[in-house]
């Protein structure tokens, strides 16, 4: 195939290669890119600060937080809930007052209508003449009569412009929600986590810059994002899921303390988490752009 044939643009079909080439040049279409290693949150990093935890705690759902960060989050959310509840109660009292005013106005209008009816019944001898006169005189529809010229809307005057009703405030929930799962979260649900550091006398680096910082408390396997881990609720020790399957689930005894364990005492740690995905199951970023039609 000659060079002219490969670059021929006289064809009647808009090929996939031409569409892809034009999309890259014009900025149309969808871009897919796999997230790099630097974009993945470390397994020992806080889900809020995205930094290595100084005092790690874990939720029953397996999300790791720094104790200071999550406590500050809970306190901030409780303060916000109290503020929203006060605004909601203020709005509720205002609505009740408005309903009371409407009910009072309706009651007064009924009383006035009753008084007018009684007055017509007990009218004087000129009531028939008054009815005839009232029938002949039809009310004017002009905006300039009966003093209505002074109440015309003037939209260029701030005091005459229509006002926007305040947005209705919904009743806030009583519970602080987990920032990752959206489930209710309490301080007593947080479990302290104990990472076992890798003891290497030849490695003089600081802990935060080490590639291999922690290891399994039982098997001493190096922990990382690619290694599924679990936390033992009773002691807070971090072990690998392989250790859980092959050692702990045989007799359900803690391999370090010897105490009995149950299924609830094993909390699987959630790994990874990026700006594009919460877990390592999907590490591809997608950017939607206008589609170039053929």
UniProtKB/TrEMBL annotation:
Segments forming domain Nitric oxide synthase-interacting protein zinc-finger: 4-78
GO cellular component term, pick one: cytoplasm
Xref: InterPro entries: NOSIP (IPR016818), Znf-NOSIP (IPR031790), Znf_RING/FYVE/PHD (IPR013083)
UniProt-recorded Gene Ontology molecular function terms: ubiquitin protein ligase activity
UniProt KW keywords: Coiled coil, Cytoplasm, Developmental protein, Nucleus, Transferase, Ubl conjugation pathway
Location of the protein in the cell: Cytoplasm; Nucleus
Catalytic activity: S-ubiquitinyl-[E2 ubiquitin-conjugating enzyme]-L-cysteine + [acceptor protein]-L-lysine = [E2 ubiquitin-conjugating enzyme]-L-cysteine + N(6)-ubiquitinyl-[acceptor protein]-L-lysine
Coiled coil: 78-108
Protein family membership: Belongs to the NOSIP family.
PANTHER family: ENOS INTERACTING PROTEIN, NITRIC OXIDE SYNTHASE-INTERACTING PROTEIN
Protein name as annotated: Nitric oxide synthase-interacting protein homolog
Native species: Rhynocoris fuscipes
């Amino acid at each position: 195939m000659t060079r002219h044939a490969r670059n021929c643009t006289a064809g009647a079909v808009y090929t996939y290669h031409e569409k892809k080439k034009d999309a890259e040049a014009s900025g149309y279409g969808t871009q897919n890119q796999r997230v790099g290693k630097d974009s993945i949150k470390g397994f020992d990093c806080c889900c809020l600060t995205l930094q290595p935890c100084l005092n790690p705690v874990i939720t029953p759902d397996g999300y790791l937080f720094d104790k200071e960060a999550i406590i500050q989050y809970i306190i901030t959310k409780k303060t916000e809930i109290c503020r929203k509840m006060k605004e909601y109660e203020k709005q509720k009292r205002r609505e009740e007052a408005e309903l009371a005013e409407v009910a009072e106005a309706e009651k007064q209008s009924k009383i006035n209508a009753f008084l007018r009816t009684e007055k017509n019944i007990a009218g004087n001898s000129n009531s028939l003449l008054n009815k005839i006169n009232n029938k002949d005189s039809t009310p004017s529809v002009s905006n300039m009569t009966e003093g209505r010229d002074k109440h015309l809307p003037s939209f260029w005057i701030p005091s005459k412009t229509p006002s926007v009703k305040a947005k209705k405030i919904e009743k806030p929930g009583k519970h602080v929600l987990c920032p990752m799962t959206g489930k209710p979260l309490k301080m007593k649900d947080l479990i302290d986590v104990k990472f076992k550091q890798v003891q290497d006398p030849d490695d003089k680096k600081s802990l935060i810059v080490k590639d291999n910082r922690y290891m399994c408390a039982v098997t001493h396997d190096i922990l990382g994002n690619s290694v599924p881990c679990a936390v033992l609720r009773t002691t807070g020790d971090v072990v690998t899921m392989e250790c859980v399957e092959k050692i702990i689930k045989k007799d359900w005894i803690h391999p370090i303390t010897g105490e009995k364990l149950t299924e609830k005492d094993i909390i699987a740690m959630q790994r990874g988490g990026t700006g594009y995905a919460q877990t390592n199951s999907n590490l591809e970023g997608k950017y939607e752009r206008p589609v170039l039609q053929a």
